[in-house]
Amino acid sequence: MPRTELPVTGQALPERADAARNRRKILDATARLIAEQGPEAVTMNAVAHAAGMGVGTVYRRFGDVSRLLFAVLDDGEQRFQEAFMTGPPPLGPGAPPAERLRAFLHTVAGRIIEQGEIMAAAESASPGARYQSGAYLTMHTHVSMLLREMRPESDPTILAHLLLAPFVPSLFEHLTVECGVTEDQIKAGIDSLLGL
User: Fold this and answer.
1) pLDDT of residue 11 exceeding 80
2) Which parts form a coiled-coil structure per UniProt (predicted)?
């Protein structure tokens, strides 16, 4: 049976106040390290030191560097999800599915260009983790639902994976850095793929 509810990244059982403070300190320390030294500087020890807490706390909270980097990404992901679930059209509800899909993929492309370095670090720290992350599962479910409306005769689950496959940091880095392709050119390419 197809999924009809979107999982929202970061929504979990309410935390104790001290646990929420520790989580915030760890995420803020990680974001500072990334901003100052790049994602390659993120280690569990470095984050613990920057956050002023024991490394065991960081490990207990996040498990490994990949999960920590994905948590930093998920922090911003929540705002993105709110925009496409409940925000104004065309990204949010109220626009035809093809317009919503276009707006969604354009926004995803922009986010990858903006945050590609940290996304690449998170994915390389744990290959395949992308497909288990709350962010990807939510994107996949959303795209599947739009495709189901647009092409009811197709298998939207597989199509959603195939449509999202090129939205990876390595391709966007290749296009923008090595080939000099602009964000506008990438979005025009997305429109061509969608037949818009």
Assistant:
1) no
2) none
CB atoms within 10 A of CB 162: 10
Question: Taking a C-beta distance cutoff of 8 angstroms, is the pair 37, 47 a contact?
Answer: no
Q: Is the dihedral of CA 191, 90, 153, 145 positive or negative?
A: positive
Q: How far apart are CA 21 and CA 9, in angstroms?
A: 19
Q: Do residues 125 and 132 make contact, with C-beta atoms less than 8 angstroms apart? A: no
pTM of the model: 0.71
Nearest to residue 52, comparing CAs of 22, 80, 31?
22
Amino acid identity at 147: L
Task: Determine the Cα–Cα distance for residues 6 and 11; give it in Å rounded to an integer.
Answer: 11
- Tens digits of per-residue pLDDT, 63-102? 999 889 888 877 778 889 999 999 999 999 999 999 999 9
* Domains of the chain, first to last: 17-63 (1.10.10.60), 65-194 (1.10.357)
Other CB atoms within 10 A of residue 140 CB: 19
Tokens 């959603």, residue located? 160
How far is it, in rounded angstroms, from Cα 167 to Cα 181? 15
